[in-house]
Amino acid sequence: MLQLKIMMKKMSISTSKTSLVLFLCQIISALDVPLDLSQPPTITQQSPKDYIVDPRENIVIQCEAKGKPPPSFSWTRNGTHFDIDKDAQVTMKPNSGTLVINIMNGGKAEAYEGVYQCTARNERGAAISNNIVVRPSRSPLWTKEKLEPNHVREGDSLVLHCRPPVGLPPPIIFWMDNAFQRLPQSERVSQGLNGDLYFSNVQPEDTREDYICYARFNHTQTIQQKQPISVKVFSMDSLNDTIAANLSDTDIFGAKPVTERQPVLLTPTGSTSTKVELRGNVLLLECIAAGLPTPVIRWIKEGGELPANRTFFENFKKTLKIIDVSEADSGNYKCIARNALGSVHHVISVTVKAAPYWITAPRNLVLSPGEDGTLICRANGNPKPSISWLANGVPIAIAPEDPSRKVDGDTIIFSHVQERSSAVYQCNASNEYGYLLANAFVNVLAEPPRILTPANKLYQVIADSPALLDCAYFGSPKPEIEWFKGVKGSILRGNEYVFHDNGTLEIPVAQKNNAGTYTCVARNKLGKIQNEVQLEIKDPTMIIKQPEYKVIQRYGQVSFECIIKHDSTLLPTVTWLKDNDELPDDERFLVGKDNLTIMNVTDKDDGTYTCIVNTTLDSVSASAVLTVVAAPPTPAIIYARPNPPFDLELTGQLERSIDLSWLPGDENNSPITSFVIEFEDALHEPGVWRYQTEVPGSQTTAQLKLSPYVNYSFRVIAVNRIGRSQPSEPSEQYLTKSASPDENPANVQGIGSEPDNLVITWEPLKGFQSNGPGLQYKVSWRQKDVDDEWTSVIVANVSKYIVSGTPTFVPYEVKVQALNDLGYAPEPSEVIGHSGEDLPMVAPGNVQVHVINSTLAKVHWDPVPLKSVRGHLQGYKVYYWKVQSLSRRSRRHVEKKILTFRGNKTFGMLPGLEPYSSYKLNVRVVNGKGEGPASPDKVFKTPEGVPSSPSFLKITNPTLDSLTLEWGSPTHPNGVLTSYTLKFQPINNTHELGPLVEIRIPANESSLILKNLNYSTRYKFYFNAQTSVGSGSQITEEAVTIMDEAGILRPAVGAGKVQPLYPRIRNVTTAAAETYANISWEYEGPDHANFYVEYGVAGSKEDWKKEIVNGSRSFFVLKGLTPGTAYKVRVGAEGLSGFRSSEDVFETGPAMASRQVDIATQGWFIGLMCAVALLILILLIVCFIRRNKGGKYPVKEKEDAHADPEIQPMKEDDGTFGEYSDAEDHKPLKKGSRTPSDRTVKKEDSDDSLVDYGEGVNGQFNEDGSFIGQYSGKKEKEPAEGNESSEAPSPVNAMNSFV
Q1: Is 901 helix (H, G, I), strand (E, B) or coil?
Q2: Which of 317, 479, 1075, 1186 has a CA-to-CA distance to 1260 between 20 and 30 Å?
Q3: Taking the complete model, does pTM exceed 0.70, yes or no?
Q4: Which three-class secondary structure state does DSSP give residue 1183?
Q5: Which keywords accompany this UniProt record (predicted)?
Q6: 10 Å Cβ neighbour count for 982?
């Protein structure tokens, strides 16, 4: 059975106010056959390959196709024809291939499980769908089991096993308690990928009887619950108390305290493991460790870095997550668990395989009779996929022959096609992990051109912005497109226009003179057609008088100007903002035509004010800051705040209102402008005073609105222009009756914090708003646009509720209603929220790059489907980087640049590119959660540009009539250098320039000798490099040929070097000892120069000391220097005023300790030692003579024959007697070993030989005695550590693999 997949392309043309979105994909626009023309079927919609359905609902298997004539549809099931007419439960939608299997009227989903394939056919060919594997979802119940309580000692590790039932698809696991609240997790307690709950170490607070594992099956929207698990943690204190209660006072008792333990891995087990993952999937690796203190997990990749921007750490870094894995992510990943007592690690060997993926998918081919064409199908994978072709759904080997068709591996070549060659070809690429299929038709048509863009379409753009004029077309053969300006204008050509393959004309920088009528002409051998469009260029909107920074005194008046200039045909709208928000709803703010005026300025008016001008095509803005300061005091009259009101009285008490009256205090020379009335709720917020109302200063009574269930007392504050008085004394208290709430919580929102939840938040009611005891909230939600009932919970004392298990980023209707013991508040209004965002799933497709010039390129892409964004679309990011310079062929460190394009923009400009270079780029979609996967890297190259100036130009070896020029190639060649251009001209004493001479030099030269020049003449040189694009910037230099007289000696006959015009001393070098230094130098110039040496302490401001050099020697010895001191030195020549060498710095050696007299070399000591030796020799002779006279005794012989081995030193190697030495330097390096007479240490005699340190016999010592080299004993190499790499286990064959 063949498994297939349709490769579909989408077209998108969008416009914006300020710029036009780029054009369609070049190839697709040419192949989009109008539906009124004959064409083979194209499948436009089909169900997924792995189609899991809800067994309680009807099964809908989609198959939609287009074609002319409209195609007919047929199905196979499990490889055989599926006759839907014989099954009353199965119907096919009219004018469609979509199957509807009626399950809700008695059918069973299990009976229709199988592999389905759709065929769409008309007279020009047949297209086939993927193999659609239909399986009903399953949500089995938990098996009954008896769970024993877990009794654990404090500090020990614990694993609570979930073991959920096997469902389809697998369930989502989470742990909760009896109150349906998520169990808190941390570095110490966390859930593993298998659903088990791991405790690195248990604490007394872990004791509870309601650890419940839940399995949620999304397809059937059911949740299964495991029986509660009980955990009892015995703390050391309670255990000691229990022991003490059962022992007498004389017994010794006491449990051991909690002992800390080094980490041990709970999962995975062992030191190594393997994992196979497929390319493009998410790689999840997990390490959970036990230990006390709680271990911390760290992840590394052996021999490499974790991929940036694709690596995430979850579950308190216990899970390593790498998205969009590729073959480059294969390798060994090590997790390290560490605490204060030690560490443990585990290595996971990851192998990334790959299901087939497209390199080049076949695309529809529209040919005219007699034309040639090719279909190319190239895919990659791991292992390499096999490629097979079908024609109209039949293997091409057994399909009807077509003489115009030739199959060559992954390519079908068509030659001299005829109308009967029309067909649909299928390319199948498959390996053991999956397959790909693309349907691509060959449609042989003979059609004259037609233009699909509406006639006289009007385009409006702002000056200096890009303009794109569309000319969508079709024809067979493919028409040629030409553009003209005006009805009878000449054909448009030149660099100011860009012509796209889909017919679009782009004017990168539109000017006023570009306005007018443009004619697009499409022609092929069957005819010609044209279409006109109109382009209008509008003046940009400008703010010619911007608002300015203002400082205003309190209670003053201020005005900001915003005078604009705009195109007369555009209608501007002006909006004012304060601190990037709407202006306060206050009558003091007056918005005029060209200004904003604020009356009676107060401190709260301080801030930034922005004027925004919008038209239908552009928008501009300008801002200014307002600073409010206090008004200066007037010394003539003393103004003060008023005295507080007094004599407060409550009258007219009702359930919802009361009358308050008071007497005002002294206004202190400033009239009272208002009275502020505040209240205290002694029942809910005693001691807190809140604003009630404000009345004019002429009023001394007020009717106050009251809320139920509040114990009121009131106070009054008088206000004048100076400020507020002290509050009055509080009034008597008044308690209102209880009632149901009058209002619901404000600011209700529904925003997900995770991909599978919805967080509902609200502002809780104040105590006085509760209207009665028992304040609670009824939180309700339901999925929007889905016929679901409201789900509600009632909560208290909280301001948020988390709904778990939601689909990712779907809209929800949310409402929160207040209630108390007396009833509910009015029905609340509904707000729309969204469940949590997740990273986008799909990379932008059809990424195209158009190189505009050597430093600018334009990139465009197809927008991703909104469903795949899985969040609020924020825009697209373009990553681009230089791969190499095409002129140098050398790679460098990759520095990726990122450009962000906001909103649903599908194109952008890449500025600042380097000429003649190879670049790569990819595009990613961005939502509130982050970035999606990257599109495949797109390679593009910039053309050549003009080079930079040569890196240097040096002129040397001047003679009477020649100069030698040396130069360096440009730092930035920006292309292939073709040549250099040298221009030069003489300069006379009055700085007048002579005739200019130009020389062209090959690009591979780096020096040139100019001959036949005038002696003693100054020349000015101009030098630049060229590429095929043109000449680069030039570098200039001046030089002088030498004189033949005027006091400069002519070179001697046979001399090989001309003396320079100006003498110089160079290469000053020093060789320093403790108290002296040798100074040497090189001299070029007139002979018989007298030199001197100047020196001084480096960094000192003292005058230089001067030493005269005898004769014309080029060296000198400085004596009497201070050891360990840094000196500066320079060399000069007498008679040449101010002519000296550059400075050199040296340092004398450190002072050495005075040498001690070697006593062994002194004459008196040698004589003494000779006398002692002679005396010893005489004594030995005397002893020998006396011994011989004594003779030998039998006992002595027996002693000599049977010496006691315990009192004699033995050699370890051969058992012979060792020798002892009195001298320290003769002590053996090892017991029983001897020191050779030459004082060297033989390797075989010492296990601690110096040869065993460092690299062989080449080990060295530094001057301070430290050893140079790495310690390395001379031992046989030990076998390499670690496990041998082993092959990954054979992966399970992917569903729908090619067979």
Answers
A1: strand
A2: 1075
A3: no
A4: helix
A5: Cell adhesion, Cell membrane, Disulfide bond, Glycoprotein, Immunoglobulin domain, Membrane, Repeat, Signal, Transmembrane, Transmembrane helix
A6: 19
